[in-house]
Amino acid sequence: MHSRSACIFVLCGLLPFVLGTSLSGPEQTFFNLPDPAQTREHLQYYTSSPHLAGSQRDYETAVYTHDKFVEYGLSDVVIHTQHVVANFPLQRELELRKADGTVLFTAGLYEPPLVEDPYDPAEDPTFNMFSGSGTVTNRIVYANYGSLDDFNYLKNNGVDLKGALVLTRYGPTYRGIKAFLAEQFGAAGLLIYSDPQQDGFDAGGVEHPVYPEGKWRPELSVQRGCLVYWQYCPGSPSQERMGLCLGEEFADASPAGNLYPTIPVLPISWGDAYPILQDIANNPNGLAAPSTWQGGLNFTYKAGPSVNQVYLNVQMNTTNTTIWTVTGTFRGQSSNEAVLVGNHRDAWGKGGSDPSSGTSILLEIIRSLRVLANTTGWVPKRDIYFGSWDGEEYGIMGSTTWAEDNEVFLKDTLMAYLNVDIGACGPLLNIRGTPNLLNVIKDVASQIPDPSDSTKKLTDFWTNDQLVVLGSGSDFVPFIDFLGVPSVDFYYSSSPGANEVYHSIYDSFAWMDQFGDPGYIKSVALARLIGILAIRFADDIVIPLNFSNYAGQLQTYLTTIQQQVATGLPGTYDYSPLQNAITQFKTAAAAIDGEAACVRSSGSATGCTSDLNELNRRLQIAERSFLINSKTNSSDGLPKRNWHKHVVQAAGILDGYGAQIFPGIAQGIVDNNPALIQQQIGRAADTILNVVEALTPAGSKK
Q1: Mean pLDDT, to the nearest integer, of 129-133?
Q2: Which candidate, 215, 362, 522, 556, has a CA 20 to 30 Å from the CA of 108?
């Protein structure tokens, strides 16, 4: 799973409106079914040992999930064997040395087992998937978070990174971006450490007890994670996918350097980073670091370079491996339309919160649906699909492979995708998704009590009247960016970021029991919310998507991209085609939302729309029409990242987690190319007009 960016939508303030929608009979019955004891039992199984994608234990969890899907009455349950590329460490060494080779410090590069969390460090090494191989001995430079601004600060202040080693801290950008930029600026190797200011004893400038006494990351804890450049192409970074990922001109290129780094990269704890940072700080001639670069350790950080040298040796074995995605279907009366609920199953370590809290929620939703059906005779009008994805931690592999393999069928069938990755690891509910899902989420959330205060509803803690745009880092990516399916992602956390022991061996059953979700009340709240949303999509007479809200957001996005262009690459640009398209979209959205509201109010299509099935079809395919290739069925995508097709949103090209709105236009800023900006304004306008056409009844089209 990804570490979330700070722009995530958080439910933590009073909502200035009240919704009166009530739950249907099946929804009300379902509400009372999710059980914290069952959720805890599922979690205990999945977290009993590490289950890295492709491992024997990972396969065992696939079989367990398959068997639970069958036990809970799903149809067409399949374990999909998927063949992907991965790489694993053969050697990892890190030392601080004098110029004569005298070793001053040797990094441990492992997490000590605890009584609460026993494991074999040899079976679960600390590493970054898709690191390059290499041996480097040189002085090291501290580059803060490893953002473009950070590297430019070093460059502009005369720090030569060619052949040097670089040390960055985790947050807020994706670790793969740090590696990408380090290599672009000439570095020969990269270390990434977890500073206690982010998730340790000094998080937020307040002293915290660390695990196992508290929930915060301890001194020798390491954040593992992949480095694949998913901002260009999620999924397996194989030779065969180069053309699909980047365009046909890259079809014969090597994935290394295009889809993942070639330099050695190693994640380390702050305990192992401490002597290196201190050595950098001890250089009297080293470049001072800005105040914003200071972390939580007890000395003043410098940019450097270091006094002494750092020896880094990382040797990786790139190989083909097998992963196992599990899918099943809760059958409805019709299979023409379906809603999909998904969670990834593979983990770094034992995966207490990430992803096993989400996996246990997924199983509890399915179990509760089966109890609902068995006790009331309920059968949904439409199918509900479930996916247990594998290989997410390697680069969103399982869900991407499944989406690509079933592209035509899924584009024809899916109404929405509901994602839960990290399920519950804190008090704050975070939701991000496409704007057409906002109203139905509000409707359902307004009926669900807050798990910490039963006198309030989930919506009583909503501060933002919109969903934040989806970026990257979890399994919603192929569904929104490649298939054009309305998508949403849910999770509880302590802040709009990942949990405190993210991607470490300490993200465990013991951590979840004591700190992540004591009593599993947050897990039950999410099971209720996601499960009732699935029922709403499966049962409503009209697919519950709203496009008037989307129209308002498109206008906001246009203002935002205009400001970004004005700051990043000032010039004279004609935005009128895009503004005109958004204006037409607003009219079409109001019309179709009016049709849908009339049908819901009357319970019948009579007097509301000429054809109910045709109305639902228009609602279903509208998001698909935001794809650049929606009318041509070509392989066209965003400039320089062909796999991504959605004209409105994609992962930030230099962020990786957060979203970039109108990413084609934004690419022109990155490339310093005014002509590309203007060309992409026109392309965005044309694509939005395709959506207008999709929303409009056939008899009304000009």
Answers
A1: 98
A2: 215
